[in-house]
Write a structure and sequence with these properties.
By secondary structure, this protein is an alpha/beta fold. The protein folds into 2 domains: about 70 residues, 60s Ribosomal Protein L30, Chain: A; about 160 residues, 3-Layer(aba) Sandwich (Alpha/beta knot), CATH 3.40.1280.10. The protein has 9 helices and 11 strands. A 7-stranded parallel sheet has the order 7-6-5-10-8-11-9. Strands 1-4-2-3 form a 4-stranded mixed sheet. Helix 5 runs parallel beside helix 9. The radius of gyration is 19 Å and the shape is elongated. The N and C termini lie far apart (about 55 Å).
Length: about 240
């Protein structure tokens, strides 16, 4: 069965993709106004398709904020986990345990790029594939942070351990605050789905669990907000800052 075209839309997602030499782009669709506004970002594009805004809107998912530009392109070729680890990049990584909302995954990628995360790892199933919605929420980060898909999250955790990573699960019921944990560049932080949290088997394979301190007036955070706070804490450590 023929798959649907992949469209990346919105100024940040589109311009980041255009600047990525690894991104294979089939067509650039742009309104006249957006072509004028983007100027230099489109200067190297041969034969962009000039399109009316309402026609571009009809090609995209309902409610898409395209800002006058969309790219028809191929999904990025992402590395296998073992290949990425063998590059010895030595950066923290983030694992997503059945986080299924592409808006959340995109926002998490954005935080991962902002705070120096080496890769985001998710399963082939029960996780969104690359999409325009995800790319829009990621605001260009999809072109920066590798999104590695694996068959089995527990196996990925065990592989990370073999390469010297410590696995920290983010869990609101944990006894230890994330600011109290000894986290370094070889930390793999695991986030669970909103509501369900980490699955039992995933939890059992973590080296330890940590939580974000928060007021008793609120039980939990949106998973992308929790990721941003946790990754900021990790980033401060890498930069030599204090989390306390």
């Amino acid at each position: 069965m023929k798959s649907s075209p992949l469209y990346l839309f919105g100024t940040h997602a589109a311009t980041a993709a255009l600047a990525n030499p690894m991104r294979k782009i089939k067509r650039v669709l742009v309104t006249k106004n957006a072509q004028t506004e983007l100027g230099k970002a489109l200067s190297g594009i041969k034969n962009p398709v000039i399109i009316e805004g309402h026609k571009l809107e009809a090609m995209l998912p309902q409610g898409s904020v395209h800002q006058g530009i969309a790219l028809e392109c191929e999904p990025l070729a992402q590395p296998a986990l073992s290949d990425w680890l063998n590059e010895k990049i030595e950066k923290p990584v983030l694992l997503l345990d059945q986080v299924t909302d592409p808006h959340n995954v995109g926002a998490i990628l954005r935080s991962a790029a902002a705070f120096g995360i080496g890769a985001v790892i998710a399963t082939d199933r029960n996780a969104p594939q690359e999409s325009g919605v995800m790319a829009k929420a990621a605001s260009g980060a999809l072109e920066i942070v590798p999104m590695i898909h694996v068959v089995n999250l527990v196996q990925a955790i065990e592989t990370l351990k073999k390469f010297g990573y410590w696995i920290a699960g983010l869990d609101g019921a944990a006894k230890q605050l994330i600011s109290e944990a000894n986290l370094d560049a070889k930390t793999a932080l695991v986030l669970g789905a909103e509501g369900a949290g980490l699955r039992r088997l995933t939890t059992e394979h973590c080296d330890f669990l940590v939580k974000i301190p928060m007021s008793s007036q609120m039980e939990s955070l949106n998973v992308s907000n929790a990721a941003a706070i946790a990754l900021y804490d990790l980033y401060r450590r890498q930069q030599g800052g204090s989390s306390s």
